[in-house]
Amino acid sequence: MSSATVLLPGQADLARRLRAVDDDPRIVDQFHVKLLPAAGQELSGPGVAVALSLAFEEYRHEQDLPSAVAAALFRQLADYAMAIVDNPVVRRQALQIISAGLPPS
Fold it and tell me: How many CB atoms are located within 10 Å of the residue 55 CB?
């Protein structure tokens, strides 16, 4: 397994990239905010997948999302990974892990 890592964008750039995926004010204020602490961190592909998944799970449980809404947001995790990861190796690793996950039921 490759030890490739990526330095995630700083907070302002990360927020901009996340909004490019979904700019719904509720998502920005309640989901994106859970990803902002990762700004500037050095992560591997699995690390990116874990960060996105943990933020998703926290948001899903806090908001008690209906299954259909949670599944739609889960499907967007790949879009978020593509938006925030510039390194193609790290991006590919993150996408493989995210795509192997099962949408919540």
Answer: 20
